[in-house]
Specification:
CRAL/TRIO_N_dom; 4-stranded antiparallel sheet; Patellin-3; alpha+beta; elongated; PATL1-6_C_GOLD; transport; 580 residues
Length: 580
């Protein structure tokens, strides 16, 4: 889901606007009467200036909208008036397409021979219209020679002209030579028809009909008698089209979907309609509905997976590209075209299942936060990975608009930052506003900015772990900052008989940790719960501990940071009743 690079259509939008202005300037330069020249020029210049001012205002409005970091409303009634109008026009276009089958894939193009052949009705229309430039050029040559290559000319018997006609005229009849090539035969027939028409116009009086020839090329031009019966066929019912399990124009949920396509095309109605039409056709051709039922295996479940929600309730999707350092997994995924095709189908299937769990009500959550872990990523040197990724990104960008609330890149190497700087000018401001980059040392802090620690997987610095644990993702954690070269303490008060449990971790560790129970009674002794020990970066991910007591007091945790760097501490606790 790679989002929305500037499409060639979008990139060409600005030049198209310039062309419109140029056309109006050309109109100003058109020749006019000398006495009206000044007035016309002033009027046209005023119109051009008004158009340019309007366009400047529209561009400023678009820039302001694109620079917004907040998601826009999906309630139609809260949209600005211009967007409401575009939305209604968009719905009208979709309804017309549903009524006329406009979302069906176009039929395959006919063979070349069938393309050259034209139905009789079309030939009749061409006879009624003025001859094309090509025919006009050929007609004089045929009149002079009276023997084109594709036909034979025979002279009919001369008929006595009416008394008022000074001299008789010759009417010619054409016969098609069967031995000639079909394309030449058609061209020849059309040329002779044009000649016949010009001759008859001179010979036939106003009150008489021209003689009917026995030419075989003229007879097929008669309109079939059965043609009017087509109007008697009852209209077909509107086409039923669904996207992500939601029928178009069915209810307010489809409004949310339509707004996604409109926003992806800056509320340009025709562009948005082209996009949604292409998406519907692609989904039919790709077989998305049937894809949901396919069993494509679970070999990639550690590469792409959903886990938890961000602080605003968006589901979070993690992409761990470092898993492809496993040569066997890489070869099984990208080894040949068939395997790359399977990977693409698996990725689309995964996204489709994730999208169908979203809430498409106007006030619901219908977007995803995506976290891209570039640690140990194979990089741009792997051609097969690059090809498969680009193909997938193009499909996601063209057919899954506005599904990303935020795109977070963590453990970003220096080369990726350089690559992003090169492609940044080609990204829209709206797209760039969703991108966040974090170096390896800042990745966890950046993640915690958007996702709570209890929702972040343990491998990314959080507390969320698989399997049965004392705490769940619903148990909130507390974040605190440990200053360099200081001892930081955390206290958990105990007021009644209970079993107190806690878990904590320090991002980057390299600290000393200890825990003790200090009773409230003055004559009681302090109880050491956990002796002081140094914890390195790879020693432990999360410390889980507990203490049972029937006395009032407090648990004191001590974290000694002897380094020159600040440390992030994350912890949570709860009391459980117990009996002796």
């Amino acid at each position: 889901m790679a989002e929305e690079t500037q499409k060639p259509e979008a990139a060409a939008a600005a030049p198209a606007e310039e062309v419109v202005v140029v056309e109006k300037e050309e109109e100003v330069a058109a020749p006019v009467a000398p006495e009206a020249t000044d007035a016309v020029v002033e009027e046209k210049q005023a119109e051009v200036e008004a158009v340019e001012e309007t366009k400047v205002e529209e561009k400023e409005a678009k820039v302001t909208q694109s620079a917004s970091f907040k998601e826009e409303t999906n309630i139609v009634g809260e949209l600005p008036e211009a967007q409401k109008k575009a939305f209604e026009e968009f719905k009208q276009l979709i309804q017309e397409a549903l009524n006329t089958g406009g979302f069906s894939a176009p039929p395959p193009s006919p063979p070349a021979k069938e393309k050259d052949a034209k139905p009789p009705a079309e030939e009749k229309k061409e006879e009624d219209q003025p001859p094309a430039a090509e025919t006009e050029e050929k007609a004089p040559e045929n009149v002079e020679t009276e023997a084109p290559a594709s036909v034979e000319i025979k002279e009919e018997e001369k008929t006595p002209p009416p008394a008022e006609t000074p001299a008789p005229e010759t009417v010619v009849e054409t016969e098609v030579v069967v031995e000639k090539v079909t394309a030449v035969e058609d061209d020849g027939a059309k040329t002779v028809e044009a000649i016949e028409e010009s001759v008859v116009a001179v010979v036939a009086p106003a009150d008489e009909k021209p003689e009917e020839t026995a030419s075989s090329s003229v007879e097929p031009e008669v309109v079939p008698k059965d043609e009017p019966k087509e109007a008697e066929v009852p209209p077909s019912p509107p086409e039923e089209v669904s996207i992500w399990g939601i029928p178009l124009l069915a209810d307010e949920r489809s409004d949310v979907i339509l707004l996604k396509f409109l926003r992806a095309r800056d509320f340009k109605v025709k562009d948005a309609f082209t996009m949604i039409k292409n998406t519907v056709i692609w989904r039919k051709e790709f077989g998305v509905e049937g894809l949901l039922e396919e069993d494509l295996g679970n070999e990639l479940e550690k590469v792409v997976f959903m886990h938890g929600h961000d602080k605003e309730g968006h589901p979070v999707c993690y992409n761990a590209y470092g898993e492809f350092q496993n040569k066997e997994l890489y070869q099984n995924t990208f080894g040949d075209d068939e395997k790359r095709s399977k990977f693409l189908r698996w990725r689309i299937q995964f996204l489709e299942k994730s999208i169908r769990k979203l809430d498409f009500s106007p006030t619901g959550i219908s977007t995803i936060v995506q976290v891209n872990d570039l640690k140990n990523s194979p990089g741009l040197g792997k051609r097969e990975l690059r090809q498969a990724t680009n193909h997938a990104l193009n499909l996601l960008q063209d057919n899954y608009p506005e599904f990303l609330a935020k795109q977070v890149f963590i453990n970003v190497p220096w080369w990726y930052l350089a690559f992003n700087k090169m492609i940044s000018p080609f990204l829209t401001q709206r797209t760039k506003s969703k991108f966040v980059f974090a170096s390896p040392s800042k990745s966890t802090d950046i993640l915690f900015r958007y996702v709570a620690p209890e929702q972040v997987p343990v491998q990314y610095g959080g507390l969320s772990r698989d399997g049965k644990q004392e705490f769940s993702d619903a148990d909130a954690a507390t974040e605190e900052l440990i200053k360099p070269a200081t001892k930081h303490t955390v206290e958990f008060p105990i007021t009644e008989k209970c079993a107190l449990v806690w878990e904590l971790r320090v991002v980057g560790w390299e600290v000393n940790y200890s825990a003790e129970f200090v009773p409230a009674a003055e004559d009681a002794y302090t109880v050491i719960v956990s002796k002081t020990r140094k914890i390195g970066l790879t020693d432990e991910t999360v410390i889980s501990d507990s203490f049972k007591t029937g006395d009032a007091g407090k648990i004191v945790l001590t974290i000694d940071n002897q380094t020159t760097k600040k440390k992030k501490l994350v912890y949570r606790t709860k009391a459980k009743p117990y009996s002796d």
